[in-house]
Amino acid sequence: MNLVIQSPAPLAAAHVKPLVALARGAGSTSIDDFAIRIEGADPAQRGDLEVYCGTHALDYAFVEPGKTLSDFGLVAMDMDSTLITIECIDEIADFCGLKAEVAAITEASMRGEIKDFNESLTRRVALLKGLDASALERVYDERLQLSPGAEAMLAGAKAAGLRTLLVSGGFTFFTEKLKARLNLDFTNANTLEIVDGKLTGNVLGEIVNADVKARTLRETCAKLGIAPTQAIVMGDGSNDLKMMDEGGLSVAFRAKPVVRAAASVAFNYVGLDGLLRLF
């Protein structure tokens, strides 16, 4: 396999020799100042590489030789803590003084400690009852930031002919704004009920849980006439696992341990544009 090593800062030359040796590779090629490719690497050395890369804040990924980004047809992304840096529901809850309580439920849910996502979401949204809907706008304007490398990753994916899907257990208020801002092709998320300018504490319609995320991925691939294995899927929480399992390449981004363990690739240090260096 090819082994791609990436660093969030320029990659120190001193790392090259030990990494080639650890990977039992045939040699290395510079991709850019931040990354190298080691040819002929042995995936059985993953454990030693995990320790070395973790110690030196590097990301590594085994990639099939000859694989290109244009072999894929779709990049599907989770929103909260993946495409963007925040958990929107936690920030909304901050406006009614309940951020710590809601964030604790969010964290437990994303780590896979709360098995029923529907119940977890319903509990959290109920705590928002009575909040002025203008809080959503404030979260978007004042707190929502794109994850590092997001725009470069999307530009690279589009240039290679891939379509884009944003599928979220969060809310349509934010996915629709991001769809327009980033020119995304498809979105699916939950709808907060708003009556007389205030949140009712209810979610309208079907909740976008792990099963719905996976189904959305399959349906989007069917619309595009591609197999789910031609999708790259990016996520961070346990409700992304089923969707990630459907794709041909899964990327755990700043992810919970259960997700890092299951994904093809984990980006713990580099930005989302690390995807482009893999190919």
UniProtKB/TrEMBL annotation:
Which cofactor is recorded for it? Mg(2+)
Reaction(s) this enzyme catalyzes, per UniProt: O-phospho-L-serine + H2O = L-serine + phosphate; O-phospho-D-serine + H2O = D-serine + phosphate
Xref: SUPFAM superfamilies:
HAD-like
The DUF4072 domain extends over 3-49
GO terms (molecular function) for this protein are: L-phosphoserine phosphatase activity; magnesium ion binding
Quote the pathway field. Amino-acid biosynthesis; L-serine biosynthesis; L-serine from 3-phospho-D-glycerate: step 3/3
CDD domains linked:
HAD_PSP
Pfam family for this entry, one: DUF4072
Q: Which GO terms describe its cellular component?
A: cytoplasm
Question: Which InterPro entries does this chain map to?
Answer: DUF4072, HAD-like_SerB, HAD-like_sf, HAD_sf, PSP
Q: What is its EC number?
A: 3.1.3.3
* Record flagged with keyword Magnesium: yes
Its GO biological process terms? L-serine biosynthetic process
Any idea which residues are catalytic in this one?
78, 80
Keywords, sorted A to Z? Amino-acid biosynthesis, Hydrolase, Magnesium, Metal-binding, Serine biosynthesis
The answer to whether the entry has keyword Hydrolase is yes
State the similarity comment: Belongs to the HAD-like hydrolase superfamily. SerB family.
Please give the NCBIfam families that the UniProt record associates with this protein: HAD-SF-IB, serB
The name on file for this protein is Phosphoserine phosphatase
Q: Which organism is it from?
A: Trinickia violacea
Taxonomy of origin reads:
Bacteria, Pseudomonadati, Pseudomonadota, Betaproteobacteria, Burkholderiales
